[in-house]
Amino acid sequence: MTRFMTATALGAILAAGSVAAQDLTTVNAVMPKQRSANYFPLIVGEALGYFEEEGIEVNLLPSDTPIPFVNFLRNGQADIAMLDSAEVLQAVAAGVDLRVVYEVMQTAPDGIAVSGESDISDVEQLRGETVGLVSDRDRVTMQIALDARGLTEDDVTTVVVGEAGPTLAAAFRDQTVAAIAGSGPDWLAIQANGIPVSLITPEEVSNKPGNTFAVAAGTLEEKGDAIEGYLRAWSKGMYVATFAPDVVAKIAQDAVPEEWEDPEFGQQYLENAIRLNVSVTDTLGGLNADTWESIQPGMQKFGLIEKQVAPSDFLEPGPVEAANDFDRAEVEQEVEAWRDANM
Fold first, then answer.
1. Which CATH class, in words, describes the domain spanning 110-206?
2. CATH number among 3.20.20.370, 3.40.190.10, 3.40.50.300, 3.40.50.1100, domain 7-107+209-342
3. Which stretches make up the SsuA/THI5-like domain (predicted)?
4. Of 138, 147, 262, 316, which has the fewest Cβ atoms less than 10 A away?
């Protein structure tokens, strides 16, 4: 638990201490990575005591499993799961009774990149060009991006480049591809090998929930307060990055030093995570029914989902309102006290 050296913060510590003296409620969560700067609101919220203040202990379930995360909700192992938009829509269409309670990433991490030295600035300029795929799973990303500009896969030549950073960088350096379809870690790997990149993903393609928090429908009745507390602590951790990214960096360096063995890469990794994790809506984690509606035709067209579903069938806005119910100024004061004590 963080200790602050101000009278105001001392009161917060005593309050937190009283919570710590009680039994904490365990929230079982599953997400693509364990504790990582890629999902910095968790490690920031833990370092600054936000989860404990909510009376919560976060138990992360193993993520290196072939079992779909939605199954952790169905069998009751997880109270909350991080799912991408396709996983949500596929599950709901299959009859899974789940509720999306928070949009973790409101910008898709996947997209289309070109070399920073390329003259190409829009996907429509890829007609007749070769587009690299980090892996074949990135083909749909390319198809949807091309479709947004009235192109099809037949208008380009595709080649699977592979996931290795040096290979991806060489594809740009040797000009064997004009663009690459991939995601954030791929762009960082290319940059780490000396090639700057620029993103040309159409806004209507990137403007979609990259990751969400979902719960089984009954969980809100059984553990509603704990879920709201979890999301509020997450929101506070996210908010810290909007005014104190240096504090987020320090916490990440301490919590996951293996991601900072190369400090430059670690900083770029965190900056990409902040870009993706900080909400673009005024409401942190806000649910946008119009976006969920608009992304489904393209996903169905290219086989990501079999049928479309009404957002009202799975969006549950109540927890988001609770997740935003905190004093921003108080968080700012606590972070400044933490900085004074730790940096």
1. alpha beta
2. 3.40.190.10
3. 37-246
4. 262
